[in-house]
Amino acid sequence: MPADPKHLEFIQAITKRLASNSFQMKAWNVALATAAVGFAASKDSHPPAAVLAVVPSIAFWFLDAYYLGLERLYRDLYEAVIAGQKAAFDLNADWHMPHTSMCNDSSWLTSGSRLPSL
What we know:
Distance between the termini: 54 Å
Shape: rod-shaped
Structural class: mainly alpha
Number of domains: 1
Helix content: 55-70%
Order of helices and strands: HHHH
Largest sheet: none
Low-confidence stretches: none
Strand content: under 5%
């Protein structure tokens, strides 16, 4: 039985929203880390305060990995629906911890590479 186009549109909308959330995590990560470093570099502040930039970087790294992992799961669900392996209008992706998303190129370049520079 061929996949219903509306079902595929729903999955695509979920994937697009997750990609948007992942991009927002990267933007907030850059903004907060820059603000923390700028605060530490101001003339009345203390340079050790730059360590505060590490906290949001690590937190947003985990959130970004979470969204990238979910996005990957929904892409797999999309492929399964096209192959006819999932029931009609089943939007439940098979959940597993997205630990592999922590070390992918996108997540490492935006979050992980910034940590040593702080």
